[in-house]
């Protein structure tokens, strides 16, 4: 395959991955209304684990080492447990367009933790961009919360921080075992612990849930939890991490668009303005220079 063709295919796969991720909050909002937070937040991992196990067996993937399993456990805590569960709970109370603005901070959180893991010192430019993005999100949350920061906002921001840490850890580990393999093994690690809570969350009312609720849940389990990662990581591998990762800036706007299309949420000028400001701060922060001299962690 020619280099130009490979790069174009990488960009296409990256775009597909971002579109799939952008549908995560809208489908979560639909599913939790009928199926509950625990079932949606943890149950999708149990279902995804079946698909993941088949793929790993067919491909005859090598088992990670004990040291790698420790890193995978951290990835599982964020990407498999923390983020799905916290976002599922938050989406019971927040509009998707609201959540999209806060989740837009994810690339910045990931970049920050990546710097720490790489033992680098963030530049002043990075900290300025972080403050701009964070303040914008807090102002937005206060505005929609009528002068106070609501618990769902705190949960969503915590979800972003946890996922940012797991992404940074996964990015470092992907150099050793492969990109999509990181989330695949993390799913298998987390799934066994979720079987009992998911089983206890089952109710007879779920049998009467509408088809769109179950369709949303299946989407979360099969696409958001696994296939979207395959497309995203494959796209970056083929088209280049720096180039393909820029597509991620479209995600908050796609989330807002999908919230209007599928949930009939209104798109306000204030929401779009804050989203633009947050994305600007993320772009500024991700491109900020860093020092290679070490980090605070080296002193401990």
TrEMBL record:
It comes from the Bacteria. The chain crosses the membrane at residues 34-57, 69-87, 93-114, 126-143, 149-168, 180-199, 211-232, 253-284. Keywords: Membrane, Transmembrane, Transmembrane helix. It is a multi-pass membrane protein. One of its GO terms (cellular component) is membrane. InterPro entries: AA-Vitamin_Transporters, EamA_dom, EmrE-like. SUPFAM superfamilies: Multidrug resistance efflux transporter EmrE. Pfam families: EamA. Residues 9-140, 153-284 form the EamA domain. This is EamA family transporter. The lineage of its organism: Bacteria, Bacillati, Bacillota, Bacilli, Bacillales.
């Amino acid at each position: 395959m020619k280099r130009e063709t490979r790069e174009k295919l990488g960009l296409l796969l990256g775009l597909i991955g971002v579109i799939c991720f952008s549908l995560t909050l809208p489908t979560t909002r639909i599913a939790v209304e009928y199926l509950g937070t625990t079932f949606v937040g943890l149950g999708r991992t149990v279902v995804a684990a079946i698909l993941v196990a088949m793929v790993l067996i067919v491909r005859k993937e090598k088992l990670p080492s004990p040291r790698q399993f420790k890193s995978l456990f951290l990835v599982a805590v964020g990407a498999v447990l923390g983020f799905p569960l916290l976002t599922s709970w938050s989406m019971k109370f927040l509009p998707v367009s609201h959540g999209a603005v806060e989740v837009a901070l994810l690339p910045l959180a990931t970049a920050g933790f990546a710097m720490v893991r790489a033992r680098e010192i963030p530049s002043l430019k990075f900290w300025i961009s972080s403050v701009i993005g964070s303040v914008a999100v807090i102002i937005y949350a206060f505005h929609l919360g009528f002068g106070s920061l609501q618990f769902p906002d705190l949960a969503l921001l915590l979800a972003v921080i946890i996922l940012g840490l797991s992404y940074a850890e996964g990015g470092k580990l992907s150099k050793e075992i492969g990109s999509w393999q990181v989330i695949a093994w993390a799913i298998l690690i987390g799934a066994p612990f979720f079987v009992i809570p998911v089983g206890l969350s089952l109710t007879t009312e779920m049998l009467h849930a509408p088809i769109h609720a179950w369709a949303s849940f299946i989407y979360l389990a099969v696409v958001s939890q696994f296939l979207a990662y395959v497309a995203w990581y494959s796209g970056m591998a083929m088209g280049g991490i720096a180039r393909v990762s820029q597509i991620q800036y479209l995600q908050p706007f796609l989330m807002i668009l999908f919230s209007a299309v599928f949930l009939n949420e209104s798109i306000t000028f204030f929401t779009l303005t804050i989203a633009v400001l947050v994305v600007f701060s993320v772009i500024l922060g991700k491109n900020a220079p860093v020092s290679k001299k070490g980090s605070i962690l080296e002193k401990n």
